[in-house]
Amino acid sequence: GDSVTQMEGPVTLSEEAFLTINCTYTATGYPSLFWYVQYPGEGLQLLLKATKADDKGSNKGFEATYRKETTSFHLEKGSVQVSDSAVYFCALRNVDSNYQLIWGAGTKLIIKP
Amino acid sequence: NAGVTQTPKFRILKIGQSMTLQCTQDMNHNYMYWYRQDPGMGLKLIYYSVGAGITDKGEVPNGYNVSRSTTEDFPLRLELAAPSQTSVYFCASSDTTGINEKLFFGSGTQLSVL
User: Fold this and answer.
1) What is the pLDDT of residue A97?
2) Number of Cβ pairs < 8 A linking chain A and chain B
3) What's residue B100's pLDDT?
4) How far apart, in whole angstroms, are the C-alpha atoms of residue B24 and residue B20?
5) Which pLDDT tens digit goes with each residue over B63-72?
6) Can you list the residues of chain A whose pLDDT is less than 50?
7) Nearest-CA distance from B43 to chain A in Å?
8) Does B41 contact A105 at a Cβ distance shorter than 8 Å?
9) Is the predicted pLDDT of residue B1 greater than 70, yes or no?
10) B45–A100 CB contact, under 8 Å
11) Mutate which of A38, A42, A44, A87 to test chain B, going by most B C-beta atoms within 10 A?
12) Residue of B103, B104, B109, B110 to mutate, testing the A interface (most A Cβ within 10 Å of its Cβ)
C-alpha cells in the first residue's frame, strides 16, 4: 500500500541555517503531496501542497518540489528562525483513497538562537 | 477564532474504563476526522464523517465508536480501554475533500491506558 517516509528527528539547527527535511513516498499513480506543521501546543496546519509532478509548493519561506522520478517531496527553507521550531508532517493523498491521507511519522525541528 | 477544540488535553485511564474524547468545530465544516498517532508512526485514521448523521470507519476503528448528531460535534468513544489505545488523538475538520482539501486540527489529546 501507499506509504510516506520522513527523516527521523529531532533535527537541530542554528538560526539562519539552511533546512532540508526529507520526505519520500510509495504510491501508485500520481498522488497529491502535503506538508503540515504543528507548532508547540497547537493543532497541525497545512503548510504547503503540490498536486502534480514538478509542482512547487511554497509558504512562509518554505518550499517543496514534487519529484516523481525520485518519489520525493523534500521540505526546504533558506534561513530558519527560532519560530520555525515545530513538528513537520509529510502526507499524501491518492485519488483512489478518497478520505484517507497517508502520513509520515513527523520530524521535530529545533532551532537554537 | 476557536477552530477545532479538543478536550481533554491529557487523560490517564485504567484498563477497562470508558471515556469520550470531545471534538467541536465552529467553521461549519461538513467533514470531520479522528486520527491517532503512536510513537514513531504516522497518523492513522480511526473514523470520519461527511456530515451530520453520517459516519464511517477508517483504517483503525476497532475499540472505538463515534457519533455525529450535529455539524459541530464529533465525539470519539472508547468503551473498554486497553493499553494498545495509549496514543495521541487528533480531531480534524475540513470544508471539502480531494486536492483542494485543507484540514484544520485540534491540538490533540494525549491518552495513557495503564
Assistant:
1) 67
2) 60
3) 76
4) 13
5) 999 999 999 9
6) none
7) 6
8) yes
9) no
10) yes
11) A44
12) B103
Q: Mean pLDDT over residues B77-91, rounded?
A: 95
Cβ separation B42–A100 shorter than 8 A: no
Give the three-state DSSP class for B5: strand
Q: How far apart are CA B31 and CA B50, in angstroms?
A: 5
Residues of B with CB under 8 A from a CB of A: 3-4, 6, 31, 33, 35, 37, 40-45, 48, 50, 56, 58-59, 90, 92, 97-99, 101-108
Contact indicator for A88, A35 with CB cutoff of 8 Å: yes
The pLDDT value recorded for residue A63 is: 98
Q: What percent of chain B has pLDDT over 90?
A: 88
Q: What is the pLDDT of residue B10?
A: 96
Q: Which long-range contacts (CB under 8 A, 24 or more apart) does A80-85 make?
A: A80/A13, A80/A15, A80/A16, A80/A17, A80/A18, A80/A19, A80/A109, A80/A111, A81/A15, A81/A16, A81/A111, A82/A15, A82/A111, A82/A112, A82/A113, A83/A111, A84/A19, A84/A109, A84/A111, A85/A39, A85/A40, A85/A109, A85/A110, A85/A111
pLDDT tens track for A62-82: 999 999 999 999 999 999 999
